[in-house]
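hey can u run this one w/ nicotinamide-adenine-dinucleotide bound, need the structure tokens asap thx
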Amino acid sequence: MKIAVVGTGYVGLVTGTCFAETGNDVTCVDIDKTKVEKLSSGQITIYEPGLEKLFLRNVKEERLRFTTSLYEGVKDAEIVFLALPTPPGEDGSADLKYILGVAKDLGELMTDYKVIVDKSTVPVGTAEKVYAAISKTYVGDFDVVSNPEFLREGVAVEDFMKPDRVVIGASSERARKVMGELYAPFVRSGNPIIFMDVRSAELTKYAANSFLATKISFMNEVAQLCERLGADVDMVRRGIGSDDRIGKRFLFPGIGYGGSCFPKDVQALVKSSNEVDYDFQILNAVMEVNKKQKLHLLPKIKKFFKNDLKGKRFALWGLAFKPNTDDIREAPALYIIDELVKEGARVCAYDPEAINNVRNLLGNKIEYAENQYDCLEGADALIIATEWNEFRTPNFLKIVTALKNKVIFDGRNLFETDAIKELGFYYESVGRAVAVPATGVKH
Ligand SMILES: NC(=O)c1ccc[n+]([C@@H]2O[C@H](COP(=O)([O-])OP(=O)(O)OC[C@H]3O[C@@H](n4cnc5c(N)ncnc54)[C@H](O)[C@@H]3O)[C@@H](O)[C@H]2O)c1
Ligand SMILES: O=c1ccn([C@@H]2O[C@H](COP(=O)(O)OP(=O)(O)O[C@H]3O[C@H](CO)[C@@H](O)[C@H](O)[C@H]3O)[C@@H](O)[C@H]2O)c(=O)[nH]1
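ok here u go:
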């Protein structure tokens, strides 16, 4: 099939590449000239495990190309995916200006039947608005379909190639048939393509993200309770997660959910609810809990240093909002940095992939290290904000040698508390007992 993907960011590039991988002819469109030039010259623009290999193969096979011209991209396409940003507007609702702007342009360009697919996360009723925007200038036959994307960054290729399910909201048999054929290679193991009406598909995406965010905030509140009651959240997590009805996944407490999706999507669903006079009470609490949780380590750090962080030096491991990505949108690490710097502390950070993005955002507000051990040099404590695998079994001897104090504040519960205490560290994590070494701690 001939496919256009409009918007070549995290979702668009993965979508375009994976459809090319299954033999389709894909043109990705983006307004960012530099991005298109880079991609056209065979350079990948995001870090996503497994993507580069597929990207290079399909560019070489000429099944995947890039352009800044919407006309060039869509002129021969049977299916046009919109993978455009839907950032929060001033009031928290999803801003549809990118989607509706491109829809209007499509109306002016289209000359034959196409299936227009909302891949972006969009509020209920958006497909109808896209249909209306195109219809203003194009009078021929076309369909608008909702096909929300459920991929997670860091495992995006795997999620896209082997989805748990594909949701397709379509009102015409013709569009359902086209979409069913397109996705057939991705569901060969038997996972379902779930066809439904357009509005239900649009809501499914927000409901899925909001439910997952609720699970995380719930566990973060259980962690708060554990700290106060002397229980261990890892034990409680395993105790409840082994019940199939609850499930093991998305129960990890930490320093709050971040990223480009959960924060904005929970907020947008609350806003959509308000617009139809419904107060989605649980989600208001989910957002409130998450706001506090992002700074969960701060009072612990301040208390340890007797409320005086001026001139203190902190090593920070992890800047990306989660491991295996370079994405720093709504990353908890950024909130922690902001607070530490406000208090007069200095921060030296290391992340395997996200340093360039943070440097572009923060410049020399903080220092950056070449590797995880360099940033420990002379630091008063180590803070862990992202659970990259390489942080899980570090060389503790190097940590001890470089750090000024053997003190770790861990927002991702990477280490066993007893083991780390044995190594002589003072160690605070989330929802577990504070580990104080028998020898006490100097600072
Ligand atoms: N990132 C994820 O993990 C993820 C997963 C599922 C769904 N989503 C949803 O998918 C959508 C896209 O998210 P993303 O993370 O890929 O965003 P992104 O910001 O990484 O990419 C969007 C791209 O669209 C381009 N763009 C903007 N205006 C354009 C225009 N008029 N014409 C062509 N290109 C244009 C931008 O230059 C950018 O490259 C959002 O609605 C998001 O909520 C994201
Ligand atoms: O047990 C957990 C699981 C996740 N997180 C945090 O939750 C956030 C989101 O993680 P994850 O869902 O793995 O990453 P995303 O790439 O943001 O993916 C989510 O958002 C995407 C965009 O809508 C959806 O497509 C995915 O299905 C949905 O999982 C991150 O900050 C994680 O650290 C936790 O704190 N505890």
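The two ends are 65 Å apart (CA to CA). anyway lmk if its weird
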